[in-house]
Structures are given as structure tokens and as C-alpha cells.
């Protein structure tokens, strides 16, 4: 059987990979992908805790996290398109005027 | 006796880790997006191991399907090329990677210390699945549905409103401003 802590460690590693990507990546789309990776790591720990405590509410929370992530992806990608239209770049270092 | 659960956990976890590291290593966004799809598929396998069938299906359909198609579509639309390295990212590498590695090692150490590896098994429902029990498995749509539409009805409605507003906001943000002159398109 797989202990709960293994799942938590895997979820923590995935979250850390997301944080690293968020920090080192300069492409705004890849930064967004790193955020999705972090959300996936959190979802894994939600499901692991739900299985451990036999509480189905954890799985419902994963559902809500997915919905919020979808909304975030829709709005964020629209913002990326708007930024690209005005700045002609996807590099976050070039988007430094705090205005579109 | 071979521990099938542990082997499957290690296999799916290895795929997820390889995908996550590949996401960091690749410089082209489309490669990063495809490796993130691999991570999500592997996580769906982990959810199945944990007995969360509905979540696994939603993970594949909504996350690896819809959301990632949106990402890939935007990458194609903007013709995103190889990312260029700048000075700021080196500073982030110098401080970000050691910091996050240290933090994750600390968290892993704390989790393994305090919950212990002899903790209660997490795959109890997986056993029930493997025994082909006739009764409803926790984590199936049969059990998630009533919970979602009775106890969590208000959050469900609020998130449905949220995603409606988000879609409208995406349409407003991504559409061209009305005052902008329409440029003639070359080609077809």
C-alpha cells in the first residue's frame, strides 16, 4: 500500500517544479503553464487527503479548483493575447511599463 | 508479494516528475505544454489509484482536454517562438532554484517525519475497486453527484457564475478594440 506521505511528497515536488518554472521562465505562456502545474500538485494532495480521511468533500474541492483554473486560464490567455497585440512580445521582461 | 499499488504509484509519479522537469527544461512553449499534458495524464492515473474515478475522468476531459487545448491554441495563435534569456532570469535561477529546492526538501522531510511511512494506507478504495465490489465506490459519479448538488450547491452555482463571467471577460479582453482601424489582411 502507498502511504499518504508519498502522495504528499509527490504533490510537493510538483508544486516546487511549478514555483521554479514560475521563477525562471521568461515566456508568459510558460509561466502560465507553471501555474497550472502548481494547481495540479495541490489537487493531488486534495485527493490524497480525501482518500486518507475517507472524506469525499476533498474530491469536490478538486472539482472546484479545476473550474477556477479553467476560468483563470480563459481570462489569463485573453490578457496574454491583449498584451501581445499591444506589445508584440511574450517576454515578461519586455512588458515593463505597467501599461498596455 | 509484489506491491502493485506502490509500483503503479512509482510509475505514474515518475511520468509526472519527468513531465514536470521537461516543462522546465524545454525552451519552446509548445513542448512545455505537451509535457504538462503528460503530467496531467499521469496525475489522472494517481487519482484512479486513490479511488477518485470521477476526478480522474474530469482531469482528463477538462484539464488535459479543454484547458490544454486552449493553451496550445493560444501558443499557435501567437506563433510563440523559443524564449529568449535575459538578465533577470539568471538572478531568479541563482536564488529561485536553491530556495525552492531547500523548501521542498524541508517540506518532504517534515511530512515523512511526522506522518511516517507507516501511515494508514491511502489506496483502500483501490482495493475495493479491484475486488469488483457491486456497491457504489466512493469517488464515482454516483457518490460525487449528490454531494455536489446538495451540500455544495451554493459553491457550485457560484463557480458556474464565475466561469460565465470569466468567459465574457475573455471575449471582451481578446476582442479588438472598436476604435482600432481594421487592417487589410494579406493572403487568402
Overview of this structure, please?
Chain A is mainly α and 100 residues long. In chain A, helix 1 packs antiparallel against helix 2. Chain A has a single domain, classed as Helix Hairpins (Orthogonal Bundle). Chain B is mainly α and 188 residues long. Chain B has two domains: 96 residues, NADH-ubiquinone/plastoquinone oxidoreductase chain 6, subunit NuoJ (Four Helix Bundle (Hemerythrin (Met), subunit A), Up-down Bundle), CATH 1.20.120; 36 residues. Chain B contains seven helices and no strands. About 10% of the residues of chain B have low confidence. At the A-B interface, helix 1, helix 2 and helix 3 of A face helix 1, helix 2, helix 3, helix 4 and helix 6 of B.
Estimated radius of gyration of chain B: 22 Å
The CATH architecture of chain A = Orthogonal Bundle
Give the class-level CATH name of the largest domain in chain B. Answer: Mainly Alpha
- Identify the CATH homologous superfamily of the largest domain in chain B: NADH-ubiquinone/plastoquinone oxidoreductase chain 6, subunit NuoJ
Q: Structural class per helix/strand content of chain B?
A: mainly alpha
Greatest contact between two chains: A-B, 69 and 92 residues
**Unreliable segments of chain B (pLDDT under 50, ≥5 consecutive)?**
118-136
Number of strands of chain A: 0
End-to-end distance of chain B, in Å? Answer: 65 Å
Number of helices of chain A: 3
The average pLDDT of chain B is 80
What structural category arises from helix and sheet content of chain A? mainly alpha
